[in-house]
Amino acid sequence: MTRRQVLAGGVGALASALVVAGDSSGRDGIAPAPVRAVNPRATGSFAVAGRSLLLQVIAHPDDDLFFMNPQCRQLLSSGVPVVTVVVTAGDATGRNRAPHELTPVLSNRAGYSGARQQGMRQAYAEMLGLDRFTRWERSVLSLPHGVAAETDGLAAGDRRARLIFLNIAMRCTGDVRLPELWNVPGAVMRTVTATDSLVSRAYTYDHPTLVDVLARLMDHYRPTVIHTLDPDPDYQVHDAAHPKGNDQAHFSDHRDHTPTALFTWKAMSQWVADADRRDGHAPRFTTVAYRGYYNQRWPHNLPPDVLARKVRYIAAYGGSPRWACEDPAGCGDYSQGGSHALTSHKGWARSTHPRYPGASPAPATDRLGRIVAYGVLGTQAVRWRETAPGSGRFGAPANLGGGPLAPSLSVVTDAAARHVILGLRFSALEGQGRADTREIVVLEQRRAGGPFAPWLPLGAPDLGPERARRVGCPVAVAAPDRRIHLFVRTAAQGLATRVREPSGLWGPWRLLGGRQVQDGPTVVLDRAGRIHVYAAGRDTVHHWAQDHVGGPVTHRPPTALPTPDGPPAAVPLPDGRIALIYRTPAATAPFAYGTGPGEVGVLQPHFTGYGAIGAHLGTGPTGRVTPVLLGLTDDGRAQIQYGTSGDTSPLTAPGRPAPVGVPSLLAGRGHPVAVVAMSPDATPWIWRPAALV
């Protein structure tokens, strides 16, 4: 290809660098109709499963490296093509300053933008296993409303990456930035013409243009996995202990991350609505949203080996003014070069936190003993059923509607054996001065194994749309007194509850108090049937519980256990104790802590890895009831371990792809242990490890 090749019509030579599904419309540059939204009542079919593809939408060149790895690298290494769309030019102050060197006197936004693009090419080349200065295939992509963007592709065998630079300036005339583009009617921004870019002129973006561009890219590439940033970051008080830095005024994230995520979610909703109407079925994809500067505020959760691989690619992106990349813009974002990601007090690289924690899909069983899994596909709730008890294969997904939904659902089985599904809905996602709201929703079967009643909105525990946007994902438990208790994290980072009475009516929201905790609370019943809720704080594991069955759930004194790196797993033991299993910050292996007085943690020396740990009491291969642990290996594979003694070893899922998100565990007395996880092609798989031992 020539260095200045332009793709008239948008995608002509694209397949030579990345094999993707074609654009069914065959047209480019046509202004679509006004924004469409996914219909929460839609229950049509989904597109058939096809090849996997990961699409990432980030605000700046490096957001994926800091916040979305290690999963981006794992999918790329496994042969899943990766397309990363960078919304802004990353031009910032226009000063590309290397650590321990003087800041450039003159601002050069075009040069800094071009240097950061080169840094991304260096990082992805290394992730592909190539020399960092490998030459990319560069071209220009025509997009809706007449705008254009540079697109760069690189392949190494069956591994393929593509970068798309929209290059919207981080700040435009009148101090217009992405938050204004999202929320202020009529706001307009212009692009930066980066040094050495193939795009030689500036373009104008308004709110609908950016939504249409992102929706068009989704429709062209047909991703099966979408990575986004956090659309609703936590409130953050900035003080001496938590300096503001690059955060927004009142939130723990960059001002560009939030609207980028909101535009992405809105574009997904539009893509689903348009594809469903045009094709007769909804696109098949799953979504993972990642927190950003949150990583600085909470305990770090990546062990040394996983962190080392992550920062290697950040260092390649950062580059150095002494590197010979032969790019006139510069050889990377010099402020992030060398060991900066490890030495920075902000520690953004030291964690990877999902915005919507929880295992996906969420499994249950039906009356026939088949596994039933509930998840979110194409922003709608879906149900997969095992074709026959023990078959290990799911049938086609049944669309349950309800969207657009956050990607984590909770499922419980009530006293009448009916499945009750709870989720977090983007009830309004409009911007431009209009509504942006979130609510907890519930879907209940009318009878065991039967059809579902309509979705029921339960609102949120916080008053006002801004605070309600900070609500966490719901978790629930069915109690022995026939009540269902729902728990969510609040905007104040405490815990709230709502209870469904035996009559089926839901009571009001009630705040449970306590200190600040991370999202992803764990709820279990002890041997007596009392509810216990555990959540990860900055200092220790926090605890809420009932004194007796049917009583209120109240906050308990601090557990005095070591600081957790994330949500703890909780297992009720046969002797009445509850074991809490989690890693301490940056640890490789978890500990199992008994809740009784004087109990000592038991290290799991072989169960190494990272990320959330799941645990249930189940039946092991020998028929003995024991805690069963589920987690990810360092390379992102699912692994389980029977028992918590130090002489047991984990089993890794053979022949299964690395899960997208967090796998789930289904275990119970007298039933074989099963792992359910989502593959990169947006289909779930089942692994029954007991049958392999």
Summary?
The protein is 15% helix and 28% strand. The chain is built from ten helices and 37 strands. The strands form nine sheets. It has an eight-stranded mixed sheet, with helices on both faces. It has a four-stranded antiparallel sheet with strand order 11-12-13-14, with no helix packed on it. The protein has a four-stranded antiparallel sheet with strand order 15-16-17-18.
Descriptive terms for the model:
single chain, 693 residues, alpha+beta, four-stranded antiparallel β-sheet, 10 helices, globular, disordered N terminus
Question: Which structural class fits the helix and strand makeup?
Answer: alpha+beta
Kindly report the average pLDDT value. Answer: 91
Gyration radius, in Å: 24 Å
Percentage beta strand: 25-35%
Structure description:
Keywords: Zinc. This is Exo-alpha-sialidase. It comes from Streptomyces endophyticus. The protein has 693 residues and is an alpha+beta fold. The strands form 9 sheets. An 8-stranded mixed beta sheet has the order 1-4-5-6-3-2-9-10, with helices on both faces. A 4-stranded antiparallel beta sheet has the order 11-12-13-14, with no helix packed on it. Helix 6 links the parallel strand 9 (225-228) and strand 10. The chain is built from 10 helices and 37 strands. Helix 3 (109-127) packs across helix 8 (304-318) and helix 5 packs across helix 6. 56% of the residues are buried.
